[in-house]
Amino acid sequence: LHGTVRDARGRKMSKSLGNGIDPLDVVDRFGADALRYTVLAMCGVGTDIHLDHEDLETTFAPGRNFSNKLWNAGRFTLMSVGNGPVLALDQARGDLEVTDRWMLSRLSHTTREVTASLERFRLHEAIERSHHFFWGDFADWYLELVKGRLRGEEGEASRQAARSVLVHVFDGVLRLLHPVIPFVTEYLWDRIPWPEGQTRPESLLVAPWP
Predict the structure, then answer these.
(1) How far apart, in whole angstroms, are the C-alpha atoms of residue 122 and residue 119?
(2) At 16, is the pLDDT very low, low, confident or very high (cuts 50, 70, 90)?
(3) For a surface tag, which of 92, 106, 114, 116 has the fewest beta carbons within 10 Å of its beta carbon?
(4) What distance in Å separates the CA atoms of residue 92 and residue 115, rounded to the nearest whole number?
(5) Handedness of CA 66, 85, 149, 112 (dihedral sign)
(6) Residue 157 DSSP SS3
(7) pLDDT of amino acid 20
(8) H/E run at residue 49
(9) Which of helix, strand or coil describes residue 151?
(10) Any idea of the CA torsion for 164, 91, 191, 84, to the nearest 10 degrees?
(11) Measured between alpha carbons, how far is 168 from 162 in angstroms, rounded to an integer?
């Protein structure tokens, strides 16, 4: 299905050439999530995976940076939502604003794309779509747009609607990313305040696909 793992010079990695990478070393330095993300993001069908054994810092920077972004955005999300009761999305629909509906639409669209990519074993496409949705639509745009509402600047109804959408969308983000980034996603997901009247799955690992 996929090509060969090669070093920065294009040589096939092997112990005899001394250009192999011990995955446990990578996990110790950058974490298992960074390792999984970096390798899977490169595994386009029929293409080789190029890893520089002489510069692990640069080689695994994509996974490290994305994991850090997810962690930081997740902590900000949890802090912004707080620990108080959260309305289920259906209860808040009457107070949704345009930005909320746009965010929910983007989540639905991205979920369909990621699902289709996974069903075709196009792992790198699934990761790319998840990356652009989380980093661009969610972290760079939506989180910025709702900051004032989360502080109550537009009234309590608007604040509660923003909290409801934020929890719903972040839950979806974590479910989409969990197959690739299992440890950070599970940690954050365990700390999401669950909407009232809904039963939280036992863990993210067995939670239904969005």
Answers:
(1) 8
(2) low
(3) 116
(4) 27
(5) positive
(6) helix
(7) 66
(8) strand 49-50
(9) coil
(10) 90
(11) 10
Residue 43: pLDDT above 80? no
Q: Check if the beta carbon of residue 21 is closer than 8 Å to that of residue 172.
A: no
The confidence band for 61, taking pLDDT boundaries of 50, 70 and 90, is confident
Confidence of residue 7 (pLDDT cuts 50, 70, 90): very low
Neighbours of 163 (CB within 10 A): 23
Residues in the chain: 210
Q: How far apart are CA 134 and CA 131, in angstroms?
A: 5
Please identify which residue in the block is written with the tokens 């959408």: 165
End-to-end CA distance of the chain: 26
> DSSP string covering 4-39, please?
-EE-TTSPBP-TTTT----HHHHHHHH-HHHHHHHH
DSSP secondary structure string, 73-142? Answer: HHHHHHHHH-SS-B--HHHHGGG--HHHHHHHHHHHHHHHHHHHHHHTT-HHHHHHHHHIIIIIIIIIII
Let me know: does 125 contact 117? Beta carbons within 8 Å.
yes
SS3 at position 195: strand
What is the pLDDT confidence band of residue 6, given thresholds at 50, 70 and 90? very low
